[in-house]
């Protein structure tokens, strides 16, 4: 059994791993994340998971119900830390799984993956309490800066199947298609963020018509059917070469854009998200801030109010 597999086994038992091993895992995770795009391509089928917030035993139940990684392909939507008592074990387990199975688990950033927020809501204090210094907190915060800002689920078909919660309630997102229009629901942490419809016959090509034929940059000059998961330089580093997903199906049947928070008035296309410099602390305003902080509200579009969590 490798050291990484031993760390995974130890973290599954909710037992902290040595500080030096945390440093090594965070470094390896950054090497993987730096090659991922701001909007990472994820192939369906995939199980999409919301906030973990240090609830380690809920995370274990999620794996029990949804299937273990790598048997199940997972997309985690951020907010791994704070509030719960086991933020370290939860986040480090997910990081270890990312290093071990990089193509079977995708981690995107939430508003709590922030130095400022974690000093208020518990993660910083947990690191001090369990390790006696802020070193582990710093290692994890460095990883936060490399997490993708969103994910594009390719091949979702005409419907994204509902996930049932413990009480039997359906958590559902659908892409509905008609002969003359395509309706895309963009989902975030709080549910449906926005919905846009495009006429097929108009031949529009922009970020909301999320099919490979409408998004030429999803095609690769490499092997037939391959998808480019990121432009050269589109990752956390300007030196990123971009990566390809080989043998992708020719007809993916649509896509779903997933972000932690919501949309931004400064962002009207996926390409604009790709151009953001994500390798930084979460800003107090601007497009990156909006993607992580904008919680959807069931209010008329003409009404605006301050986010109570700001």
From TrEMBL:
Record field: catalytic activity: O-phospho-L-threonyl-[protein] + H2O = L-threonyl-[protein] + phosphate
Gene3D superfamilies recorded: 3.60.21.10
Root EC class: hydrolase
Domain of life: Eukaryota
Pfam families: Metallophos
Record bears the keyword Cytoplasm: no
Record EC number: 3.1.3.16
Protein name: Serine/threonine-protein phosphatase
Organism encoding this protein: Drechslerella stenobrocha 248
Lineage: Eukaryota, Fungi, Dikarya, Ascomycota, Pezizomycotina
